[in-house]
Amino acid sequence: MTIQRLLVAKPWIWSFAATAIVWIITVLFTGGASSFGLSQAALTFAAFSVIVGIGQMFVITLGPGNIDLSVPATMTLSGTLALKLMDVQDGMIVVGLLASVGIGLVVGLGNYILIKLLRIPPIIATLSMSFIVQSVAIWSNRGLRIKPPETLAEFATSGLFGIPNVALVALILSAVAWVLLEKSIYGRWISAIGQSTFAARMTGIPVDGTRLVTYMLCAVLASVCGYLLASFSGGAALNMGSEYLLMSIAVVVIGGTAVAGGNSNIPGIWGASLFMFLVVSMLNTYGFGAGVRLILTGTIIIAVILLAGGRQSGR
Amino acid sequence: MSETLNRQEVVAARGVRVTFGAVKALDGADLVIHAGECVGLVGHNGAGKSTIVNVINGGLSPHEGSLRYSGNDVRGISAARANGVRCVFQELSLCPNLTVGENARIMHAELKGWNWRGRALALVETQLQDIFPGHAIDCDSTVDDLSIAERQMVEIAISFAGISAPPKLVILDEPTSSLDAGLAAQLMAYIRKFVSAGGSVLLISHILGEILSTSNRIVVMKDGRVVADRAASEFNNRSLVEAMGNVVREQELSRKAVAKSGAPVLSMPARRGHGHGQAKALPFEAYRGEMIGLAGLGGHGQTQALLDLYLARNSNWFPTKKRDIAFVAGDRSLNGTFPLWSILKNLSIASLDQLSSKRMIDGDREDALGEGWKKRIEIRTPDMGNRILSLSGGNQQKVLFARALATTAEIVLMDDPMRGVDIGTKQEVYEILRSEAANGRTFIWYSTEMDEIRLCDRVYVFREGAIVAELVGEEISEKSVLSASFAQGEAA
Which residue in A119, A83, A23 sits closest to A223, CA to CA? Predict the structure, then answer.
């Protein structure tokens, strides 16, 4: 297989190549002093994007029109409620985790109820759901900032053999997601639904059941991410999820998952998450403001979609 | 009818040939329509009726032959319209989000300037009143809010309406398919009035009564040619059906006589059709090991019946425990193939239950299944890992057959699966179907091809969404299917 064919067959290589380039540029700019710290930070922050990105990827795989915009609100609500429930007690860590998983299940169910029963397109259904979820978070938060239990905060901010713990958690979740996608019947089903819902139905796939599970899975991953992020940053904030709306979609797209559905790619999410973080930190190093950063993020996403589209039509 | 010959030709299509790939849709057909006559056009599926209509209305350019409108040799949809040709399509073609008046504007470009809405409204209302006196359609409402019959009435009215001049020729393709008997009679009466005033109409209908009572002349098509073109008075129901069928061809197949044994494996109560002149509908039943054909004209509810049978036995929410029914798609790109996948994944998708333990797919078992079926039905590919779209249409269809046959399902539904498949592949698949049926599988087969219908043990004929006839064994012939597909009805 020539290099060119390899690049077409494994689109996630692009995101890793881009990551490596940006990493080298940034390290060179800072004179090599920051290479370890930069890698640590990249892995940590990429981990959060990876966790929400995997959930979003499952939903996008379901085909055109499927997207979950309630991800940021779900993260916020989960972080807020879990910390409130744990109330700085180490003994409540597991209870808090279970609570945030429960929140994810409820939000995912709510999303699909809106989509299916009221026949609202997913983009609007999940957006309206996110208003409800965000309002609950505001109402329950009341401006208080509760600290996470000490052990949990310690876990979220430290690492093992130089690799941040949150990155390890994201890695385990990615491995599970990969098995689910590549080896399980469920993975085949979502890919089939993404390519042709009608054909999937006519081969006996329970389409609605599969879609419901997928929306619930996405919300659960967002909740778990919110739980970890709140523990990592020493408390939940009402805007903690906001940057993950665009990020969760961007890492899926840049990672090589087909926007039109049916084809998904987990390694690419890692490459894309690292890349997005490094671009942001590179621009910070150069001293650009938030405005330029956002413009560049948008430009990158548009460029990737254009390039990916060109690749597909070339086949 | 020597008088007819002296009249002016509105449209004359002579020696028209149209081919789609290897399929000859029109093979030298002649159709001439004079001013002041109503021509009835009949024929079985694929006889070329729709194709010749598309040639006349300018939508299709004939590959050979001449086409003249009132003697002028011009081509294209706008040329046809300029020469007064209007067409009411079988598939209703109004814009559902616009009002009746706005739809009239789309058809009649002359409606412009100040107060065009008012004039459009007046135009449609007068015309509707002319054709269907006493109708209750509110022309201010959007088409969405109208019933299917009302939409058809509106479309007919818009086509007959003329602003500067009335249309010269109106083509009506199954105009009464959604109308009840009373409305159909009103329409037929209007057609006769329109024709006696000098206009001409090309009428396509599966209700022979309408054709016989309304047309002056009847044209019968078969296999892309005109096989009969005579005055309507020279035909009756029987002779018309005989003209459509191929009487010469004899039954060449000996069919095994299957006794209905035990309880039916699949059944469906009689469904009400949507047309008028409806004979009483029959229930559907299938027994073990039978090959059942669903016949009739295309689009008369056969596919819907298959979908209903299938979806009723498959939950949309929970995985099916034991799969007892499988479906073979006819429209591959709509409800058959998964284009991003390999041949193997396309084949195995329906039988993943058997290939997996604890919901995880066993790759070796999947490969073995693929190799087995590749040999058995000879899928022509070097590697089952190649993409499904790398195969020819016929081979893709074989994969879809294998997908259904590889399951444990006892019943296989087939939705006209041989559409566009070459004859060699067909023979191979027929052989497989026969051996599978002998092993006790039940096949329910919708086909638009008479040769395939004759392979079946028992045939249900559909008309207007309902089963109107059941044919068993020796009764299955082109003639009997045809006569059941066309209502002998007393319409108009």
Answer: A83
Check: CB of residue A13 under 8 Å from CB of residue A273: no
Q: Partners of A304 in the beta sheet? A: none
Q: In CATH terms, is domain B252-324+409-476 a member of 3.40.50.2300?
A: no
* Contact call for residues B92 and B148 (beta carbons, < 8 A): yes
Q: Domain residue spans in chain B?
A: 2-244, 252-324+409-476, 339-408
CATH architecture entry for B2-244? 3-Layer(aba) Sandwich (3.40)
Rg (CA), chain B: 25
Q: Which of A202, A207, A212 is closest, CB to CB, to B335?
A: A202
Interface of B with A in 328-357 (CB under 8 A): 329, 334-341, 345, 349-350, 352-353, 356
- Its pTM stands at 0.75
Which of B138-152, B288-302, B339-353 is the most confident on average? B339-353
Spatial separation of the C-alpha atoms in residues B477 and B26, rounded to whole Å: 25
B-chain residue closest to A182, CA distance: B361
Residue-wise pLDDT tens digits, A160-216: 888 898 999 999 999 999 999 988 999 999 999 999 888 998 888 999 999 999 999
CA distance B333 to B137: 39
d(CA A187, CA B405): 23
Task: Kindly report, residue by residue over B74-131, the tens digit of the pLDDT.
Answer: 888 888 888 888 888 766 678 888 888 888 888 888 888 888 888 888 888 889 988 9
Question: Taking each helix axis from N to C terminus, what angle separates B100-107 and B148-160, rounded to the nearest 10 degrees?
Answer: 40
Whether B252-324+409-476 and B2-244 are alike in CATH topology: the answer is: yes
Give start and end residues of each alpha helix (H) in B57-177: 77-82, 100-107, 116-131, 148-160
Distance CA A54, CA A222 (A): 9
Distance from CA of A237 to the nearest CA of B (A): 37
- How many C-alpha atoms does B402 have within 13 Å on its Cβ side? 27
Q: What is the ipTM, given to two decimal places?
A: 0.82
